[in-house]
Amino acid sequence: MKVAVLGAAGGIGQALALLLKNQLPSGSELSLYDIAPVTPGVAGDLRHSPGAVK
């Protein structure tokens, strides 16, 4: 399953991305998009949480 979070750098987008990473089935792909330049930081934060999502 492929899922994209648009607006991932916002408060709701960050929480949604974390929730999705923990709830998506193993092998799913989670993509983060935002116009703000801090999106790589959000992805870095998600790497610290357990989950088998790419």
UniProtKB/TrEMBL annotation:
Organism: Salmonella enterica subsp. enterica serovar Wilhelmsburg
GO cellular component labels: cytoplasm
Domain Lactate/malate dehydrogenase N-terminal: 1-49
SUPFAM superfamilies: NAD(P)-binding Rossmann-fold domains (SSF51735)
Name of the protein described by the UniProt record: Malate dehydrogenase
Gene3D superfamilies listed in its UniProt record: NAD(P)-binding Rossmann-like Domain
InterPro entries: Lactate/malate_DH_N, NAD(P)-bd_dom_sf
Keyword Cytoplasm: no
Pfam families, alphabetized: Ldh_1_N
Lineage: Bacteria, Pseudomonadati, Pseudomonadota, Gammaproteobacteria, Enterobacterales
EC number assigned by the record: 1.1.1.37
GO BP annotations, alphabetical order: tricarboxylic acid cycle
Function noted in UniProt: Catalyzes the reversible oxidation of malate to oxaloacetate.
Keyword vocabulary terms for this entry: NAD, Oxidoreductase, Tricarboxylic acid cycle
GO molecular function ontology, one term from the record: L-malate dehydrogenase (NAD+) activity
Similarity remark: Belongs to the LDH/MDH superfamily. MDH type 1 family.
Domain of life (superkingdom): Bacteria
